[in-house]
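$ ./design --mode recover --in tokens.txt
reading tokens...
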């Protein structure tokens, strides 16, 4: 892998998500160097100039420049935000055809530069495209990571925090499965300040079990609501990508809900899907298997089946159960 003495990130795609990621990354001072690549070279250069003009106010003087795929040879992390965006009325899975072709070209060019670091994929449908990057690149599964349900989990923690009037940092809960309509909340493992959510619901007369269903709907459909209002979602996912970046570059061994390849975990194979995983400098150290209840197991299996069905026409090793 690339040298661990310099934290070098290559960003591919400087649209709404990519430029928001670059801005958040610079403001948190996580990387030593950020190289920005986009088909629209003028746009990429404009972002580089704009970000550099704000560097004097940043906590760390990240070196930011425009680059090319050749720069991937020395990168520790390549973050892919390029591709077609989700439009109003489209599901994330509607983007498969458009983005697989784009991602084959991107991955081939990155690997042609002798890249030996970690891929972090953000483009939707993220679980499908992360699987594609893993297949196209030939890299070990632990070094190809998707943003998965990190944003869904953040939305979930925020909504639960609002409901229980507690800071989201003190809410521990996961959304797992597809980053999409078949995702599911793991209420059996959710707690607020150490107290299980389901017990809080039982103890507090002001709280109702039905409220949890409404909270999940808000989480699951959040992207549709944001897209309807402003055309795209980008701040939340950019912050999630920076959180994953920090866990990688700082070798944190943090547990984050990313898209990881399952090889028997949760009873599933041949699918990248959102699950809590330990993230460090080498990528995904391990997948954490939550003790799901019967209903959660069934919903997770259904979510994995949705992804396998989408993958099957493009990758012959994927079989629909």
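writing sequence...
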């Amino acid at each position: 892998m690339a040298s661990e003495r310099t934290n070098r990130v290559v960003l591919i795609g400087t649209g709404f998500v990519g430029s928001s990621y670059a801005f958040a990354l610079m403001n948190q001072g996580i990387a030593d160097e950020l190289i920005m690549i986009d088909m629209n070279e003028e746009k990429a250069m404009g972002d580089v100039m704009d970000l550099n003009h704000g560097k004097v106010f940043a906590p760390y003087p990240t070196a930011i420049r425009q680059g090319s795929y050749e720069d991937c040879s020395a990168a520790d992390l390549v973050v892919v935000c390029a591709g077609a965006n989700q439009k109003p009325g489209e599901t994330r899975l509607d983007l498969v055809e458009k983005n697989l072709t784009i991602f084959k070209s991107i991955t081939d060019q990155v690997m042609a530069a002798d890249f030996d670091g970690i891929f972090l994929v953000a483009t939707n449908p993220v679980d499908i495209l992360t699987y594609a990057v893993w297949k196209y690149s030939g890299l070990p599964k632990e070094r190809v990571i998707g943003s998965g349900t990190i944003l869904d989990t953040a939305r979930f923690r925020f909504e639960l925090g609002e409901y229980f009037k507690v800071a989201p940092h003190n809410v521990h809960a996961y959304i797992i499965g597809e980053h999409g309509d078949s995702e599911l909340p793991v209420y059996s493992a959710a707690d607020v300040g150490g107290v299980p959510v389901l017990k809080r619901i039982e103890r507090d007369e002001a709280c109702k079990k039905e409220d949890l269903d409404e909270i999940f709907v808000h989480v699951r459909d959040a992207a549709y609501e944001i897209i309807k209002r402003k055309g795209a979602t980008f701040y939340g996912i950019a912050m999630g990508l920076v959180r994953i970046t920090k866990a990688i570059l700082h070798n944190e061994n943090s547990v984050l809900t990313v898209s990881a390849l399952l090889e028997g975990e949760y009873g599933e194979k041949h699918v990248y899907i959102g699950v809590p995983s330990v993230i460090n400098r080498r990528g995904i150290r391990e997948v954490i298997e939550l003790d799901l209840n019967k209903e959660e197991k069934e919903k997770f299996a259904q979510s994995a089946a949705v992804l396998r069905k989408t993958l099957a026409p493009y990758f012959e090793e994927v079989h629909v159960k």
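exit 0
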